[in-house]
Amino acid sequence: MAGALSWMRTFGDCIKIVPAENYHLTLKFLGAIGVERISGIQTALEAAAQNVSACDLRLDGWGVFPPRGAPKVFWIGVEPREVLVPIFERCEAALENLGFARETRDFQSHVTLVRTDKAKAPADLLERWKKLSSLSGPVAFCADKITLYESILGGKASVYRPLGHFKFCTYYSK
Question: Do 147 and 165 meet the contact criterion of CB atoms below 8 Å apart?
């Protein structure tokens, strides 16, 4: 995936390609939280992962945020979405019990690949992205856990430090 994006480096500092080691699917963004809340969040996510089956997924379908106007985020979708929505809902419910507000937007299963400074981005960037998306096929993988990450911002790229892994209980293949 990262190799397919190397052409975007020619756009200079208006583009930030996400390093492959930072690829992840966000089920819930918690924002800044105090260290005293981590244990409760870990317990909630452990409960959310119970009775969830590992699932076969695929990276497929390319898109941008926002969907209209100059794009700021370029992403690849994670499918089948209907397998992920119940896991998302379990996380939402578990974390709502700790005072985290439910997400108001529809769950959009995706992995962020590129961020851009839309004010500096070239006008044809979106057209080039669409062309790239037509050239690649799906990439399959198995999701078998929820990981709680701490985001450490700064430098060229964010660093994601795992604060806990919460394994799904069984394997399921559709």
Answer: yes
pLDDT in tens, 17-26: 899 999 999 9
Task: Note whether 38 and 137 are within 8 A (CB).
Answer: no
Structure confidence by residue, pLDDT tens digits, 107-132: 999 999 999 887 677 777 888 888 77
Tokens of 26: 């966000």
> Which domain covers residue 128, as residue numbers?
3-171
Please count the structural domains in the chain: 1
Confidence of residue 173 (pLDDT cuts 50, 70, 90): low
Whole-model pTM: value is 0.88
For residue range 86-112, what is the model confidence (pLDDT) as tens digits?
999 999 999 999 999 999 999 999 999
* β-pair partners for 165: 147
Is the distance from CB of 53 to CB of 173 less than 8 angstroms? no
Q: What is the CATH number of the domain that holds 100?
A: 3.90.1140.10
